[in-house]
Amino acid sequence: MSEKILVIGANGQIGTELVVALRGIHGVDKVIASDINNPTYAIRNSGPYELVNVLDKDNLHHIFEKYRPTQVYLLAAILSAVGEQKPKMAWDLNMTGLIHVLDFAVEFKTAKVFWPSSIAVFGPHSPQFNTPQYCVMDPNTVYGFSKLAGERWAEYYFVKHGLDIRSIRYPGLIGWKASPGGGTTDYAVHIFHEALKKGKYESFLSADTTLPMMYMEDAIRATISLMDAPADQIKIRSSYNLAGISFTPAQLADEIKKHISAFEMGYVDTDPRQAIADSWPKSIDDNSAQQDWGWKLEYDLPKMTADMLENLKKII
Ligand code: AKB
């Protein structure tokens, strides 16, 4: 089947890389990048682009009608830290935006939809180590409970409408091509930029805050392989746990010091993102993803750090 793929939220951290990867696989004209803002430098003039506001039903309907996409990736969202500053806006965008896309995907018979969830769906009473696919979930951020509610909607549309929706609970994502947009795990990207520019960094999370993270190469590969897997292998229609690599800011700093020996790490005493990080898992069990669609991680902490520094130093 000839694909027509619509990526909504193409200017973001995931979108920037996903659009390039999908265009490499399916061809430039088959992938329509879209966002509420004008295209960022990374995807400007590189293929079809549309201005889309997921909260504007008429605008979104027009885009579905114009392209009749076979696949939709809905990446537009407000992340954890910004979500706490703008809670109602985060709920509205993360929830209403999703429901608009689900409804139009059903109306226009979109073959497959991808929507990202997050480790933020877990909360203080979830098991902190090796957090299982199914367990107590009591997220206490607006972002976290909008993602948890979104997972329920995803499964609901699969059951009630037969919509082939697929999802991953991403850990914190680390990449050199685009900046993260207001999350709790953003320190793990900023640190690389500051290490190369200034030789030092002040982390807003404490030295011993362990969080699950993932290199963007792995995240994009996971996303595309989940979307390529035969439908009958996708047993979970809410969202799949993905483990990634768990480390603390101090461990990341030590790894960076292996490449930049003079690198200095400091820590900010109080930051509201610390409480969010403390409510999230420290490590994740992703057995279901491994078993159902053959997921396997490639980048560990040393490999990711080396690749990040090598690529970033060419562009900053
Ligand atoms: C955030 O920190 O909000 C995101 C996430 C883990 O979903 N990176």
UniProtKB/TrEMBL annotation:
Q: Where is the NAD-dependent epimerase/dehydratase domain?
A: 5-235
Annotated InterPro entries: Epimerase_deHydtase, NAD(P)-bd_dom_sf, NAD(P)_epim/dehydratase
Similarity remark:
Belongs to the NAD(P)-dependent epimerase/dehydratase family.
What name goes with this protein?
Answer: NAD-dependent epimerase/dehydratase family protein
Which species does this protein come from?
A: Mucilaginibacter dorajii
